[in-house]
Design brief:
Layout: H1 2-18, H2 23-32, H3 34-63, H4 80-86, H5 101-132, H6 139-151, H7 154-164, H8 171-178, H9 194-221, H10 226-234, H11 239-267, H12 271-276, H13 288-298, H14 302-311, H15 313-328
């Protein structure tokens, strides 16, 4: 009986193996299966991202390991570009002293520019959001006016600030002269002195970035139920307690996303700096993005410029992780536990 059962099983297996697979029916299932529907909708966006984002990123990382120049594909040089920029790690904690001083200055400028501008943009944006969330006359018009700095093209904004900070015709200098702070014969070199130039470009970035933070946080405030504030006021809560225990906790996920985008936009800023100062004076306002452009496009050293751009990736990943953990901390709003 056991032998007969084995023979029957072999016959059934051979018959099954001989049957042709109907691939057309499987293709129809993929077309109509709801589990695959989202995949098909994602395909155009995925193809776009791969073509215009993933491929250039991969090519840039590859070029950073070569000595490619304009018109010359170059050869593989390994970590030579990074050693030239970062320095010799065999020197210990003093490795940066053996690296490219201009590169490290651009790293300092980028961090200073990003941290200062992002913090001030958040503070002013949050204040404006809280203000615009109140009942006031002409609120819709005021919201539209607040958006103007963000919707104006960056180059036009930079040209306007280039005139505002002009040494001879600066309106700020003219106002300071008018109120007697400085003499009429003294002209402030806003973009010609290192610290003033840094402060000027940071101010321009803040002016342009505040509307994005304000409007996005305002949208988050609109979702907070008024009954929560009413109940807290009945219990005797002050304005600070309302903000600390209701507004801020409920806005935390929005703040995480807004600050992530704000940091990314600021860290990778190029147009504003390039139009205003082109990295000057004496590299005092060079960011990593502008230095990469100068070395790769204007200087022709594609490998070195790509290495500078690739060095920006860890900082950008850190900003993304900040957003991720910020969202994870407030899972309770979606029915989970607050981590």
């Amino acid at each position: 009986m056991h032998v007969k059962g084995l023979i029957v099983a072999d016959i059934v297996q051979d018959k099954t193996a001989a049957e042709p697979v109907d691939y057309s029916s499987r293709w129809k299932q993929l077309q109509t299966n709801r589990n695959w529907l989202g995949f098909w909708f994602m395909m155009p966006a995925a193809a776009f991202l791969i073509l215009f984002l993933a491929y250039p990123l991969g090519l840039g990382v590859y070029l950073s390991f070569t000595d490619a120049r304009v018109g010359n594909p170059g050869e593989w040089v390994g970590l030579e570009n990074y050693t030239w920029l970062l320095g010799d790690f065999s020197e210990g904690w003093q490795f940066w002293k053996t690296g490219d001083s201009v590169f490290w200055l651009s790293v300092f400028n980028t961090m200073l520019y990003t941290v200062v501008a992002s913090i001030i943009k958040f503070a002013i944006g949050l204040y404006l959001a809280l203000l615009l969330n109140r009942h006031m006359p002409f609120k819709a018009i005021i919201r539209a006016i607040v958006l103007i700095p963000f919707i104006v093209p960056t180059v036009l904004s930079a040209i306007a600030f280039w005139w505002i900070f002009d040494t001879q015709f600066s309106i700020i200098t003219w106002m300071l002269q008018g109120i007697g702070v400085i003499s009429e014969t003294y002209h402030i070199n806003w973009l010609g002195e290192a610290n003033l130039a840094r402060a000027s470009v940071i101010f321009a970035n803040i002016w342009r970035g505040v509307p994005f933070v304000a409007i996005t946080l305002l949208a988050g405030l609109q979702t907070v139920s008024a009954s929560l504030y009413e109940a807290a006021v009945i219990d005797g809560a002050t304005r600070w307690q309302l903000f600390r225990h209701i507004t801020y906790p409920l806005l935390t996920p929005i703040i995480a996303v807004v600050m992530t985008f704000s940091v990314l936009f600021t860290f990778t800023d190029f147009q504003l700096i390039w139009v205003l100062t082109r990295g000057g004076p004496f590299n005092a306002t060079h960011l990593m993005a502008t230095l990469s452009y100068q070395r790769a496009i204007l200087g022709g050293y594609l490998g070195e410029g790509a290495a500078i751009s690739t060095a920006m990736i860890p900082f950008l990943l850190a900003a993304i992780m900040f957003s991720w953990f910020g969202l994870q901390r407030r899972k309770w709003q979606q029915g989970g536990k607050d981590g």
